[in-house]
């Protein structure tokens, strides 16, 4: 192949790879949203469903860690109890509540209202980023907050399918999600913990997430689930197998979502994931109106557009300041030859992207998505 042909071919290959990773992310992200809503129509135990998903993710992560250790010949990180309980537990409990409340809300609200309300997580991520001094104060952030908040108000104003209980659950999940992602960023920035690899992070988070969500499950669903004919009081074997299979599909989707996000970020950039997330929300709402019959008025669509403008402005501002002010967060060394890349990394130019493709031992920056 001639040298002058190398650049266009590499550009084409990189473009095809990026499109493929984005589509893979869309399949898992949109798929698990519609799966949760579909399952909640006949299986009214969202917290139990979440516990099953956590168990499946833990098992897959443990198997993947063992396979990676066998392939590379290097032992995986195992945290001591002191760091595990004091440094990982807050992130695990916040993540468990975020996911649990999000799944619980599907009993009450439509996919469109869930998607729109969940977009407000950007507000809480900004707030806690400023509290933890992970984000520098910026006057444009006021405009971002106003756009997202006003868009959320217009979307929920006079909505024909509005449910207050489900809306409060998603809004609370978004608030806890702001804590979750901020703590996750802090956790993955601590190089001494060795949790830069998302497989190791998921492996260590799942048990504490399970323990954090289990008391809430016992209080709300324990008694009714123990007398349910679909699981613990089964009279026929086939419904029991069907329930287990459908729950297992959700666990696979949940693991695939986390890993597809990592692949997209590590092989492209966190900016790609942010922009892809914006278009993903549009796709989700369009599918919800076509497949689930969600009713969205012109005012609701206008509110959604205003909210997307706020999110897009936030993404653009982070890109601008990361390029002009340089890295403002702690740098990490990525030493492992396999998947040792930070989950939420920001790249500034093509040179960094090439280095990521070759898994060089350069310093990588974690930024909050």
From TrEMBL:
Where does this polypeptide localize? Membrane
Q: TM segments?
A: 21-39, 45-63, 107-132, 139-157, 163-183, 203-220, 240-259, 301-321
List the keywords (alphabetical): Membrane, Transmembrane, Transmembrane helix
Q: Name one GO cellular component term.
A: membrane
| Residue ranges, compositional bias (Acidic residues) | 350-369
Q: Per UniProt, what is the membrane topology?
A: Multi-pass membrane protein
Q: Where does the Sugar phosphate transporter domain lie? A: 20-313
Q: What is its main location?
A: membrane
Annotated segments matching region Disordered = 330-369
Name by which UniProt lists this protein: Sugar phosphate transporter domain-containing protein
User: What organism does the UniProt record list as the source?
Assistant: Sphaeramia orbicularis
Q: Which gene encodes it?
A: slc35c2
